[in-house]
């Protein structure tokens, strides 16, 4: 296999914090590789170094010569003064320049310039590039190319940056959390796109279905060591379990041997030279193996719930909300029951976060009500993440809420102990919040929600930026949570684990209440669509056959047959005339536009007339056979 990327002995620190040390790995041509590590291990920093946006303390990053590299950062930096169109065409890609010249020629209107630009498109083979670009923009629902980047949300900017990196068609693509801010339809499309493209891929993502379906190589960073698994995420899980079991067995075996060798060392001090040197060297190697520690400590979300829920939990009645002509929520009603675990899914911008904001009182509905019962203590985890003041430190965030925290088992922890409980070691307690990684900020924010002991959790995209280890523990906690859960997420694996009911946002503000998790919903939806298609096809066939059986080639049909034949001849003549004018006779841009529009109309009419002509021809032939 040809090596596209070679990373050797890479080391990076920030002050006293060592992110990674002497990391070495390679990525071969056509491999689709994911990096898995805990939050704070420096995954995004590593990708930044590989993409040459940062420098390492030591080590080297070498790409194969003449590779085109694409990079999607976790938080892309775009030019707010550009339009979306300008941003997409801002690269040095030759095909992009050719397409940009073609669009400029069309806008200019000069026929000679248009003809020259079309020739350039033909010579560069840029028509497929244009088609691929339109598909990518359409699938990521980037429709307004003339809006300023500065007016867009962070999620929209991430989608534009993703589109830009895909449109560039690089040989080697680096993606940092590509599924953040994508809804489930977009994520599934991106999965299929990356699976079928020949682009070599290196990425970081927490989406486990995405890892399973796209990646064929996993690199795990654990305690500053690299472990490579030649398979997808499921393969990685099984092999990692084997590795940890073997490591534990080797440590136990080394510890037992070390006790015997320690006795020998202490009894025979004079033997530490000569022939016994190999045994002394072996002793120190044993000591190194036996001193290894398997990290078993993990977050335990054993935070209590404030009160037992009463009969009335949350009553939503006839809820409606619209912005201008767009209906987000149309007459939605639901009464929550104890232990409801409900996931919410739908397209970006369909109103999911708006529903949560209405429930929590930060947004008012146009009509209808959403009322909590008296015993409910809601905890709301917002999509925008933690809010903090400049120069605020990690421990200040917790102390501002409570100096003492009571866990579900009755234990009381100080703010400092609570941070350690969530795997923030003492050396990080006085770290500025702004210095934390994206995942560490999310984990800290989650602490601020759980510390209030809610019995009704409302989570808006809680999985963004969390590492897989934290996600697994959070899923276990939510599955056993004694209160109610309402969660918006585009992480399909997460929804499958924690939700047993789905609120699905459909067309025109309708919210479907579906009993089952996400995969059950998608499976049923596909079955329904397939059945509907089959029924429509069968009905169409039966109708057609009935029409054929009951129709004879009457005088009236014969007249229609002759009329349509004449109309087809006339439309074909007009089509040829338009083609002749468009091929060079007409240079006026307004006339070209009119002719193009008329060509679309003529083509559609021809399709319609020819289809009807074929139907009449078949009736005519059948009737002739019957009469004979």
Summarize the structure.
By secondary structure, the protein is α/β, with parallel strands linked by helices.
Give structural notes:
By secondary structure, this protein is an alpha/beta fold. The chain has four domains: 3-237, P-loop containing nucleotide triphosphate hydrolases (Rossmann fold); 248-290; 314-516, Rossmann fold, CATH 3.40.50.300; 551-627. The chain has helices spanning 43-50, 84-88, 94-108, 111-124, 126-139, 154-167, 184-196, 208-214, 233-267, 277-290, 352-359, 394-399, 415-421, 438-450, 468-480, 492-498, 518-550, 555-585, 589-627, and strands spanning 3-14, 17-28, 32-36, 58-63, 69-72, 172-176, 200-204, 217-222, 225-229, 314-323, 326-335, 341-345, 367-372, 378-381, 404-406, 412-414, 456-460, 484-488, 501-505, 511-515. The strands form five sheets. The protein has a six-stranded mixed sheet with strand order 5-6-7-3-8-9, sandwiched between helices. A six-stranded mixed sheet has the order 14-17-18-12-19-20, with helices on both faces. A hairpin with a 5-residue loop joins strand 19 and strand 20 (511-515). Helix 3 (94-108) runs antiparallel to helix 4, helix 3 packs across helix 5 and helix 5 runs antiparallel to helix 6. The longest helix is centred in the last third of the chain and has 39 residues, at 589-627. The protein starts with a strand and ends with a helix.
């Amino acid at each position: 296999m040809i090596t596209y990327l070679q990373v050797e002995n890479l080391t990076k620190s920030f002050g006293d914090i060592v992110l990674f040390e002497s990391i070495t790995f390679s990525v071969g041509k056509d491999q689709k590789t994911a990096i898995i590590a805990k939050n704070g291990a420096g995954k995004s920093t590593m990708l930044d170094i590989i993409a040459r946006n940062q420098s390492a303390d030591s080590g080297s990053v070498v790409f194969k010569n003449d590779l085109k590299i694409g990079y999607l950062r976790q938080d892309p930096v775009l030019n707010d003064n550009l339009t979306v169109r300008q941003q997409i065409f801002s690269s040095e890609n030759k095909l992009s320049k050719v397409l940009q010249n073609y669009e400029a020629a069309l806008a200019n209107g000069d026929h000679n310039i248009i003809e020259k630009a079309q020739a350039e498109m033909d010579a560069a083979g840029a028509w497929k590039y244009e088609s691929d670009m339109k598909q990518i923009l359409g699938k990521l629902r980037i429709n307004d190319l003339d809006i300023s980047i500065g007016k867009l949300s962070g999620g929209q900017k991430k989608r534009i940056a993703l589109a830009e990196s895909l449109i560039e068609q690089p040989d080697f693509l680096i993606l940092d959390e590509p599924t953040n801010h994508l809804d489930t339809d977009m994520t599934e499309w991106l999965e299929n796109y990356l699976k079928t493209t020949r682009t070599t891929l290196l990425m970081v993502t927490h989406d486990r279905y995405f890892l399973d379906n796209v990646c064929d190589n996993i690199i795990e960073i654990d305690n500053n060591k690299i472990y490579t698994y030649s398979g997808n995420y499921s393969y990685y899980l099984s092999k990692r379990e084997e590795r940890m079991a073997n490591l534990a067995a080797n440590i136990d075996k080394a510890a037992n041997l070390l006790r015997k060798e320690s006795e020998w060392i202490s009894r025979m001090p004079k033997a530490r030279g000569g022939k016994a040197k190999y045994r002394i060297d072996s002793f120190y190697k044993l000591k190194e193996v036996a001193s290894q520690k398997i990290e078993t400590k993990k977050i335990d979300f054993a935070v209590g719930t404030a009160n037992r829920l009463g009969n009335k939990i949350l009553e939503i009645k006839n809820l409606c909300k619209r912005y201008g002509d767009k209906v987000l929520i149309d007459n939605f009603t639901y009464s929550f029951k104890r232990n409801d675990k409900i996931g919410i899914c739908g397209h970006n911008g369909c109103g999911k976060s708006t529903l949560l904001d209405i429930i929590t009182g930060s947004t008012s509905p146009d009509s209808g009500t959403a009322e909590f019962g008296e015993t409910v203590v809601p905890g709301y985890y917002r999509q925008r993440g933690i809010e903090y003041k400049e120069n605020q430190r990690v421990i200040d965030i917790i102390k501002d809420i409570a100096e003492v925290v009571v866990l579900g088992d009755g234990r009381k922890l100080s703010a400092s102990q609570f941070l350690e409980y969530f795997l923030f070691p003492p050396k990080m307690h006085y770290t500025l919040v702004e210095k934390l990684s994206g995942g560490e900020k999310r984990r800290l924010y989650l602490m601020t929600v759980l510390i209030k002991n809610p019995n009704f959790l409302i989570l808006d995209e809680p999985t963004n930026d969390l590492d897989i280890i934290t996600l697994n523990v959070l899923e276990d906690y939510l599955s056993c949570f004694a209160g109610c859960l309402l969660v918006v997420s585009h992480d399909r694996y997460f929804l499958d684990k924690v939700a047993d009911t789905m609120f699905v946002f459909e067309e025109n503000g309708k919210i479907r209440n579906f009993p089952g998790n996400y995969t059950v919903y998608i499976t049923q939806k596909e079955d329904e669509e397939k059945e509907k298609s089959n029924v429509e096809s069968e009905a169409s066939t039966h109708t057609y056959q009935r029409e054929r059986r009951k129709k004879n080639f009457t005088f009236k049909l014969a007249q229609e047959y002759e009329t349509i034949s004449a109309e087809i001849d006339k439309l074909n003549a007009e089509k040829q005339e338009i083609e002749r004018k468009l091929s060079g006779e007409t240079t006026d841009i307004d006339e070209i536009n009119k002719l193009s529009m008329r060509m679309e109309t003529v083509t559609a009419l021809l399709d319609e007339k020819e289809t009807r002509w074929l139907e009449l021809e078949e009736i005519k032939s059948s009737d002739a056979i019957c009469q004979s």
